[in-house]
Write a structure and sequence with these properties.
With 376 residues, the protein is mainly α. It has a domain at 2-115. The chain is 53% helix and 3% strand. It contains 18 helices and three strands. It has a three-stranded antiparallel β-sheet, with no helix packed on it. Helix 2 (16-22) runs antiparallel to helix 4, helix 10 packs parallel to helix 12 and helix 12 packs antiparallel against helix 13.
Length: 376
């Protein structure tokens, strides 16, 4: 049996944190800061405008909180499901049972335990399978075993077949990260420069079809340029980036748009008017910061509306959701404060950061981002 907790971080009820440490009955009877769990609950809510639904994604503190909650789930499962054999990785479970009836019983118990913490199983990623089962999906095995030669003609043929393989499996497994994995394995490709145009065309096409693989695609292009001497097709990459932006910005897909803007700055790619208009409507600090940097470098039309971001340049916004934009656009000199006075210097805590030269944004390239992605 495999099971996955649905939207674990966004769905976790912050009041469930003290329930884990002190039991639900104790925490409900005593809501004061004298309980350690209540203090953690309060701090988590304070970091997200007082919301009780969800905990921040990314900070190490959230990892500790998540592990505390799921460890409590594990303890209840171990007491109610015997024997309990298997493992948990983050919020994903893989358990084994002697028969299907036991697995179904355990699944029902798991859901009831999770509901105590306002959590639910993801039906799309939860299933019971009978032996024998594959240790890994067929598409991973085939993509990983695929060999690409380094001779001009042989490599061209292999690249075409490789991307055909990715396309086929993407159709069969639309909910899996087929393109992401497939392109990621090309980061160390011994590219023959006779195939550089073909390579870039295939990667850009894959990015357009599956924008979620944009980081892997850009990394493959970056590495081929930096370590294999490939000449980047600027026009092709510019068109790809703008297409991905116009497809994803209206839907609020911040990740894809951020990497497009990173590519724009890295390779000096111009952002067209329709893309810039779509970007200007997005409410995400990282998107805004990258767009403002690109505008400063002359890569975005001067007519780009920044009214929405300009409205965040107040002292109050330093304590709201867009605090990163409110701070960074000021210290980078991209946007003026509303009302004339320096809104960052007007707040002692942020004034200290500014005077100390603290910057949260510094455009950089893949080698200094903590190393390459790992694709076994």
């Amino acid at each position: 049996m495999v099971a996955d907790v649905a939207d674990f971080y966004p769905a976790l009820y912050t009041h469930a944190i003290p329930w884990v440490f002190h039991t639900k009955a104790t925490a409900k009877a005593n809501r004061s800061p004298t309980l350690f769990g209540n203090r953690i609950d309060q701090l988590v809510r304070g970091s997200q405008d007082g919301q009780t639904m969800g905990i921040p994604i990314g900070p190490d503190t959230s990892l500790i909180i998540a592990e505390s909650v799921l460890a409590a789930v594990d303890m209840q499962l171990s007491g109610r499901v015997t024997p309990l054999r298997g493992l948990r990785w983050m919020d994903e479970y893989e358990l084994s049972f002697n028969d299907r009836g036991k697995a179904e019983e355990a699944l029902a118990i798991m859901q009831s335990v999770l509901l105590q913490y306002e959590l639910r199983l993801n039906p799309l990623k939860t299933k019971i399978s009978e032996l024998p089962v594959e240790f890994e999906p067929e598409w991973i095995s085939e993509i990983r075993a695929f060999g690409i030669r380094d001779t001009p003609i042989g490599q061209a043929s292999d690249l075409l077949r490789y991307f055909d393989c990715i396309t086929r499996y993407l159709s069969e497994f639309p909910n899996e990260h087929v393109v992401k994995y497939g392109i990621g394995r090309l980061r160390d490709l011994q590219l023959n420069l006779a195939n550089q145009d073909l390579f870039q065309s295939l990667v850009c096409q894959a990015i357009t079809v599956e924008p979620g693989a944009i980081r892997e695609g850009l990394e493959a292009i970056f590495n081929a340029e930096a370590y294999r001497g490939m000449t980047v097709n600027q026009a092709l990459l510019r068109d790809t980036v703008n297409k991905v932006i116009t497809q994803n910005a209206p839907s609020g897909h911040d990740y894809e748009v951020c990497w497009c803007l990173w590519a724009s700055i890295t390779w000096g790619l111009s952002i067209d008017t329709s893309s810039a208009t779509a970007i200007a409507s997005m409410e995400n600090s990282v998107v805004a910061i990258l767009a403002l940097d690109a505008r400063q470098r002359g890569l975005i039309p001067t007519g780009l509306s920044v009214a929405q971001w300009q409205a965040r340049m107040t002292t109050n916004d330093l304590f709201e959701e867009q605090w990163l934009l409110a701070y960074e656009a000021n210290v980078q000199g991209w946007l003026p404060s509303i009302g004339g006075a320096d809104h960052v210097s007007a707040e002692p805590n942020f004034q200290f950061l500014k005077q100390a030269g603290v910057r949260f944004y510094n455009h950089t390239s893949f080698p200094t981002l903590g190393g390459h992605l790992a694709y076994p």
